[in-house]
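In response to reviewer comment 3 from the previous cycle, which asked for concrete evidence that the modeling workflow produces usable outputs, we include below a single protein chain processed end to end. The sequence was submitted unchanged, and the resulting structure tokens are shown without manual editing.
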Amino acid sequence: MAISLPRLFRNYLSLIGGIVAVVSFLVNVFLLFIDLLAASQNPYVGIVIYMVLPGFTLGGVGLVLGGALLQFIRLRRGAKAIELPRLDLNNTRHRLALVGTFLGALIFLGLSAVGGYHSYHYTDSVTFCGQTCHTVMEPEYTAYQNSAHARVACVSCHIGPGAEWYVKSKINGAYQVYSVMFGKYSRPIPTPIRHLRPSQDICEQCHWPAKFWGEQLASRVHFSEDEKNTRREIDLLIKTGGGGQHGLNQGIHWHMNIANKVFYAAADEKRQVIPWVRREGPNGETVEDVSTVQPLSAEELKKAEVRQMDCMDCHNRPSHRYLPPGRALDPSFQAGKISTDLPYMKKVAVEAMAQTYATAAEAERGIERYIREYYAKAHPRVLQDSEPKLRDGIAEVQRVYRQNVFPYMRVNWQAYPENIGHKEFPGCFRCHDGKHVSKEGRVIRNECAACHDFLERRKGGGFVLTEATAAFAHPWKLGGKHAEVLCGTCHTGGPMKPATCRGCHAIPDSGAPMAAMQCKECHLKDQQLKPLASCETCHPAVAGLHKKQPHKEAGCVACHAPHAWTLDARDRCLACHGDMAQHNPGPACVECHDFRPAAARGKTAAAGPPAIAFPPDPGSPGKVTFDHATHLAKGAKCADCHPKPFAMKKGATKLTMDGMGEGKTCGTCHDGQKAFGVMDGEKCETCHKTS
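The workflow returned the following structure tokens.
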């Protein structure tokens, strides 16, 4: 039985497949022309053209062939011998069918090749990378558009040239597609530190690290968080340098893998803590430097991953930078988009941006509300006189927020440490902190002049070199320990701490006896803990148990905690008198024990426990106030009252005139002989305070 070719395709499955293939193919061709003529790419149209519709077309062709195969199996059942279709080129119909099939296959394969080519390039396009998974990749795409590499395609850095890394990226991308489809992705997206291609393969497509660069002028414009939003300009020469085998071998790019090689081991995933460094010079000299703060043992070093330093160890955020509020707002002030006439606008804007918001929409509302509430409370006239400026300023703050903070993906300047510089993050100070020492005792350089030359502007124009120190151009002079701490200790990227001692140090601003004093009254050297002024300078005389051993020789700070001074709790006493922990638990020891305060500057403070107010007895002139200081000054002893007439527990004794008249409580002494009598009508106001 002969089976003709047309008979094989006369089945419902092949018919449906043919319809699907033809319709999807025609739609695909139509959309392809639309896409080619469009002014810009649409990520979702691209997915349909190069991924979805070709899949339908190939699926339809598969159904056609599958239906033909099933039809062939059905026709051959029961036949002793099967005759395959015959092709007779002498037959006009056969020749036309062959030519038509050949041309159709040629056109289909040609268009498939074009589609495959465009599909390859589409999956490598910036549109596909940044806009297809809009919510997930929004932070990266937004930052990329505002970066120095905005005209460089994503794949130029993330994949690079060559088939090997293209295949690796597509295999890795398959899991990323799965993660997005089923919500398995991390928030924020982790930096692919472990999967990065060596920077020599990527960065050096455009950059030339062997080229020596001279000092480059950098002018930084900052606006202070003060009332006038004061403009400050910092000018410096950055010593980029190079590491070529010929000519100069110095500057920041000395670290490049040219004449010198640097290896390091990090203690954390983000490589922010580097306890071990090895340097190899062009002459073969090797130097190992170990951190004195967090050293690595030989065993730990064996287990650690030792990396060779490259571009990405410093330039780790070349395109996806999320600036802290202070730095992000400076260009807006400089461009006049936020008026400096609005008092404290920089401070308030930074605080508004640093608040926590759940969504971008909530952030928009929250920023406006925060700023307006501040001015309504602190500067109400701004709302009346400068409403247009305030409105424009709020809109600009919201725009800056949208470019740098993404609540849903939990992305802000704190999510990704930036290693260029050393302000908000350790950066250069990961190694150049003055605490990495070699066996020979040499310290990795950390003086400012190694990387910068600082400049000051002359009144008549031009610049003049100035001393390169950590305190250069700082709003207030850095001294003592302040000149040694890392910048990020204070410059966190959020609102600045007040430039006062209390801004960082836990010093009570009220309640403590010395809260109103200035730090320099005790700390004799500016911004240094010691030397300290002697307590006797202000307290020439002491009283009570201060004068008895062992307190006399113990020194003031043995009992008085610095800055608090007043002993309001028992802890300081129990540090030495631990055996008295259960003695009269609760009250502070000084409420009973005779630690009269030291005489301060010619004045004598009240002595003893505080005054006590007793509720009034019905019919009495008013509440009774008992003043310990008055009685102690008259020679009374604690034991005269405690614990017999008065239990040593607040509220344990109830005063009544009848009881006192019977010689109880106060009547023990106030019997008209030892002291005035409780029934003496002329002495009522001595105890019953009416005011």
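The chain has six domains: 5-123, 127-196, 213-318+423-466, 325-404, 525-603, 612-687. We consider this sufficient to address the reviewer's concern, and the full set will be provided in the supplementary archive.
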